[in-house]
Amino acid sequence: MKAPVRVAVTGAAGQIGYSLLFRIASGEMLGKDQPVILHLLDLPQAQTALKGVMMELEDCAFPLLAGMVATDDPNVAFKDVKVALLVGARPRSKGMERKDLLEANGAIFTVQGKALNDHAARDVKVLVVGNPANTNAWIAMKSAPDLDPKNFTAMLRLDHNRALSQIAAKTGKPVASIEKLAVWGNHSPTMYADYRFATIDGQSVKTLINDDVWNRDVFLPTVGKRGAAIIEARGLSSAASAANAAIDHIHDWVLGSNGKWVTMGIPSDGSYGIPEGVMYGVPVVCENGEYKRVEGLEIDAFSRERMDLTLAELEEERAAIAHLFG
Ligand SMILES: NC(=O)C1=CN([C@@H]2O[C@H](COP(=O)(O)OP(=O)(O)OC[C@H]3O[C@@H](n4cnc5c(N)ncnc54)[C@H](O)[C@@H]3O)[C@@H](O)[C@H]2O)C=CC1
Ligand SMILES: O=C([O-])CC(=O)C(=O)O
């Protein structure tokens, strides 16, 4: 039996938490042979609800669930964790400006970044799900100077999975047959899902679809506004699909993506014209617990425009909270 791995989940009493924790405890994220100890962080007023979730986790009698810690203190939540899923964030409330939202989350993610810096395992893998995910991840990274910046990532996997399923529907081919999809930029409607390099059974997806108008006017808006469409239909934001994407992201990062391209928001190395340090969605391949950016892809004029647009939004978000860092 392997030694248990400590996994922190913030916002654990929320709706993504409810779709996430049971799957982590059943081994879907880190493997069916990997025991886990769950560190559950939520606000003081959510502790009773969190107790209820823990009772249900107990009642599943998961063989891999080696323990649970519930707390409202990030310093306790992140102690010795090797994986941290930062899901809890301040949602936008009525009348709240985008700037106020960034500010409120800035306060949360500076504190959590510092707590990770002070208490987490030195090789902790951090995934930020809470919106605005890329900027929150950037704030946490900047607040953790003793940790390797490359261990901070933002979730673009939901956009990636949404794009896969739209392409599968359009081509009539199975989702699993699609290779080499990329999603660039911010987790927001400005993200740029890019199937120019994608293949199905060795055939070019771009050639198969052969419809630039569909790409621009149907595919990109559908993927970009999918979160809003779910809220419209369900009355609640995506939770099960978001939790699933978080599981996919960490699973592949830790256990490898088997040569497949997957999308992660990672600090830019300056390639693709994205300034160094910007937390930007790019295609990666994961192996041996590391992600590696797919390099050398050609960026055409349409793609450049889309990639710069989503970059501009990220730069704007960053400018709004830059004062937190002097
Ligand atoms: N990156 C992505 O692809 C996606 C991101 N999201 C985002 O994920 C976040 C969570 O979504 P839901 O679970 O549906 O929201 P929710 O409102 O159901 O749950 C959020 C939980 O976080 C807790 N929380 C708030 N501030 C906290 C803090 N400082 N520390 C610890 N816990 C805190 C709340 O008490 C609540 O229990 C939202 O920001 C949402 O916009 C949602 C879907 C996709
Ligand atoms: O829009 C939201 O709040 C949830 C979200 O990020 C998504 O579904 O992509």
Descriptive terms for the model:
single chain, 326 residues, alpha/beta, Rossmann fold, L-2-Hydroxyisocaproate Dehydrogenase, Chain A, domain 2, 2 domains, 6-stranded parallel β-sheet, 3-stranded antiparallel β-sheet, 43% helix, globular, binds 1,4-dihydronicotinamide adenine dinucleotide, binds oxaloacetate ion, L-lactate/malate_DH, L-malate dehydrogenase (NAD+) activity, NAD, Malate dehydrogenase, oxidoreductase
Tell me what you see in this structure.
Strand 8 (182-184) and strand 9 form a beta hairpin. The chain contains eleven helices and 14 strands. The radius of gyration is 19 Å and the shape is globular. The longest helix is centred in the N-terminal third of the chain and has 22 residues, at 98-119. The strands form four sheets. A six-stranded parallel β-sheet has the order 3-2-1-4-5-6, sandwiched between helices. It has a three-stranded antiparallel β-sheet with strand order 7-10-11. Strands 12-13-14 form a three-stranded antiparallel β-sheet. Helix 4 crosses helix 5 (133-142). 43% of the residues lie in helices and 19% in strands. The chain folds into two domains: 3-152, NAD(P)-binding Rossmann-like Domain (Rossmann fold); 154-317, Alpha-Beta Complex (L-2-Hydroxyisocaproate Dehydrogenase, Chain A, domain 2), CATH 3.90.110.10. The chain has helices at residues 15-25, 47-59, 74-77, 98-119, 133-142, 157-171, 205-209, 212-224, 226-234, 240-255, 301-321, and strands spanning 5-10, 36-41, 65-71, 83-86, 125-128, 152-154, 178-179, 182-184, 192-194, 199-200, 203-204, 262-267, 279-287, 290-293. With 326 residues, it is of the alpha/beta class. Oxaloacetate ion (OAA) is lined by residues 131, 158, 227, 230, 237-238.
